[in-house]
């Protein structure tokens, strides 16, 4: 477990999955969900090389079929610590004989966490080390305590979007998206009040870059946590049926398969492509307070 710290925040990260483990302010208040298995045993998994679900957990590439579980393998893989300072830490994962069994591409993936005042900057860097194009998706899944929410009590929280009345997708058809179903999320000048029933159809998913900034509000309508991203898709999730006291705000460069999708992996919706020697880099920012 590594730690980075400044005057305003103390952040812990595990090399297993390069996953955030804790975000505390100077008063010691914890903002990140702590993985109680009664609700959900993860905290902020990294999604790679797929985001969400594949149809029947299967994808096709150049006429061959491969199996891969939901959200890919990075979240369950040990990364290598390659750099650490007081306010920044960097982890890396490279292709291996094990990854090549179900993901036939050579790659380097690095994840860095850097503190700037009351912000955590998370940077993903994917490099194609293969002699052919590679295809991938990548995303974040950080979970945050809902302000004022007590375990076991009915879930009630508020998010403020930088978009009024965005259009959602539904990803509840065997873990994939119902291509023909959309709905408007009604907000009050961008504020969406959610309960457990908001997630009865699983995650609330937005594509087309509709939302770039999400604020998790307290009872005074003040932002306790803000997530900013340039990702083309965003998921909002809390496990249905558990009244879990947290909500996930998830920036995604990728998305589920359409239900029934049996096309090539390279043609999957929101797929990223890198030519040999090329690289991809993106950042999202968590602001506390």
TrEMBL record:
<dbReference type="InterPro" id="IPR014718">
    <property type="entry name" value="GH-type_carb-bd"/>
</dbReference>
<dbReference type="GO" id="GO:0005975">
    <property type="term" value="P:carbohydrate metabolic process"/>
</dbReference>
<dbReference type="InterPro" id="IPR037481">
    <property type="entry name" value="LacX"/>
</dbReference>
<dbReference type="Pfam" id="PF01263">
    <property type="entry name" value="Aldose_epim"/>
</dbReference>
<dbReference type="GO" id="GO:0030246">
    <property type="term" value="F:carbohydrate binding"/>
</dbReference>
<dbReference type="GO" id="GO:0016853">
    <property type="term" value="F:isomerase activity"/>
</dbReference>
<dbReference type="InterPro" id="IPR011013">
    <property type="entry name" value="Gal_mutarotase_sf_dom"/>
</dbReference>
<protein>
    <submittedName>
        <fullName>Aldose 1-epimerase</fullName>
    </submittedName>
</protein>
<keyword id="KW-0106">Calcium</keyword>
<comment type="subunit">
    <text>Monomer.</text>
</comment>
<dbReference type="InterPro" id="IPR008183">
    <property type="entry name" value="Aldose_1/G6P_1-epimerase"/>
</dbReference>
